[in-house]
Every structure is written in structure tokens, then in C-alpha cells.
């Protein structure tokens, strides 16, 4: 019989990373993500892995990229200002196609803001925090068990597509404790990065002739290849403006854009006959579900679309919800970030309203229910 455990969200992230095969962590303590680093420091040596506390978040991200290039599944965790510091090297990982997972436990901002309070205002930063067109995937859990499951999913996506994947928690999910039953060893499905099928002499690190995700050789395994943040050709060496550069950018972004439906994880409740839909994610989705159930008890036809993948954005889901409902309420702890994507995808098919909160407190079921009744 599997054993039930009382576990914190950040703790579940660490156990999920170990189960996914993560064997390297570099980071710097920062509230409210510090428990991830603390637990990884304890767990990694037991599983043949390495933990390094770096001097700052920029160096942490660089170390994660370096470890991944040697073949190690690698992760870092941060929050607020630390996530800002990671952005340049996140762009480097995106262009050089280095798999890695970045955990961002969101807190109130900007600047040092509210270190111990929840927020969901890093949504656009997760997508566009680094400059230039680049691929990114961002997942957001709403429970402790999902912290475990989506951490594994983050590693699988990162390895399969050779992209950085962001696990976007908020402080409440990171610090809450729930009873969980985790799968036993061997019951977790893992994905590994594509490997070269040719010898070192024939290997071209960015050769896309076999598909949009080139095989990746480990540094130190006899394969020698060049990695640069400049635009590059199939050999990895720099190129200037022109068709090769355009093909590179279209390929690295296209490998995510072409898999939107495959990458999107979500949950629906009572949308079949709903006249009003609430779209929410993270801890806010928990209050949205409570409010929608209360509304049903009062005879109101309300459903919920709970997003676990927010990037790439699920346009197809929002279009479908907009076609079958009259109004969409987007509930999030910011002044309006994901709601803009919902409005764009809905395309006027349904009226879109925003419920935001930025005082460092959770949006409550009563707040959502009040907006439902007004609608």
C-alpha cells in the first residue's frame, strides 16, 4: 500500500525533480522558494547528484545550463528579483536549446515587494522576460500533488523539446501542506533528450534534417561542439543576418508553437451548460472552483476552466469556451495579465471581465461569487 504523506508544495517540487531524474541543482536562497533548495541539498547527494549554492541568480542559471550540457537533468528555483536576474541566461538556454527547469514561486512585487505574500504577476515575465523571439513553456500547479506531477512534466517537456520550462507556483501553493500519495519508484514515465545516432566526426549539433528538435550530445562524451548565444548554423558557429538566422528562429519557436494542443494541460468543471465561465490558475483556481460550486447551488450556470499550462497559451480552449458561454471571468492576483490573452483568444465571442487583487491576499470565493452575480 502506498503511504500517505503530509507534504508542502515546495517539498513536492523537490521530490518531483528527483523522481524526474534531476541530478543537479544550482540556486540561491530567496523567499518563498528557499525550501526547494534546502530539500534538494539534502536529497541530491543520496541519489548521486550535486547541489551548489551559487553567489547569485545569474550564476545559478549559468551553472544549470553548464550541467545540462554535460547530460545532467538540471534545475534551479527562485522568486521575484531572482527570476528577473535569470532572464539573460534563460534567453541563452532558449537559443542554444539547452534543457532546464526553472521554478519560480511568485511573491508580491515589483522590487522586493512582499516576500512572504502570494501574487500571480510574473505571468508575462515568464513568457517575455528575456529579449527576442524565443520558445518557452510555463506550467502552474494548484495543489501539492500537482507540484510533484508538473515538476516531472516540466522535465519531460524540457528534455523532449530541448527548451527551458518554467514551473510557476505562487506563495500559497509553495507553502501550503496537503495529504498526498506519491507514485512509487518505477511508476513515473520519463522522457529523455534526443541523442545522436552518428559518430563524433559526423555530428552537427543543430542539424534539423531529422526533425525540429536536433539530437544533443553530452559534453565530455567524445562529441565536440560549439555553443554560442549568437545566431548560428547547424555546426553551432555564428552566422549573420539572412535565411539561416530566420530558419533558426522559426525552428526554435516553432517546436513549441506547433505543439500547443499537445502541451496544454487543463481541467474543466461544469462547462457543458455554463453561461458563465471562470478562467483561473494556481491558488486562485481553488477559490474559483469553490465559488462556481456555490453559484451552482444557487441556480446559476457557472463552470470553470483551470489552466495548468499557461504558455504556450491555449487559444483553442478559450475559443471553445467563448463559443458556448456568454461571459468569461478571469480571476488572477495581478492587475490584468492572462486576461489579455483570454480577450485576444475569445475574439469578441463572449464578454471577458477581470477580477484582480494585488494587496498580497488571496482572492476569496465570495469575491468571485459577487462578480458572477453581477454578470
Characterise the protein shown here.
The protein has 375 residues and is an alpha/beta fold. The protein is built from 14 helices and 14 strands. It has helices at 9-20, 34-43, 57-69, 80-85, 87-96, 123-128, 144-161, 171-175, 243-257, 260-263, 283-297, 315-324, 338-346, 365-374; strands at residues 4-8, 22-27, 50-53, 73-78, 100-106, 137-139, 164-170, 177-181, 266-269, 276-280, 302-307, 309-311, 327-332, 351-356. It has a seven-stranded mixed beta sheet with strand order 3-2-4-5-7-6-12, with helices on both faces. A five-stranded mixed beta sheet has the order 9-11-10-13-14, with helices on both faces. Strand 13, helix 13 (338-346) and strand 14 (351-356) form a beta-alpha-beta unit. Helix 1 packs across helix 2. The longest helix has 18 residues, at 144-161. The N and C termini lie far apart (48 Å).
The strand count comes to: 14
Give me the number of helical elements: 14
Beta content: 15-25%
Q: What is the structural class?
A: alpha/beta
Unreliable segments of 5+ consecutive residues = none
Task: Kindly report how far apart the N and C termini lie.
Answer: 48 Å
Strand order of the largest sheet: 3-2-4-5-7-6-12
Any idea what the shape is? globular
The quaternary state of the protein chains shown equals single chain
Helix content: 25-40%
Series of secondary-structure elements, N-terminal to C-terminal: EHEHEHEHHEHEHEHEHHEEHEEHEHEH
Largest sheet: 7 strands, mixed
Average pLDDT number: 96
* CA gyration radius, whole angstroms: 21 Å
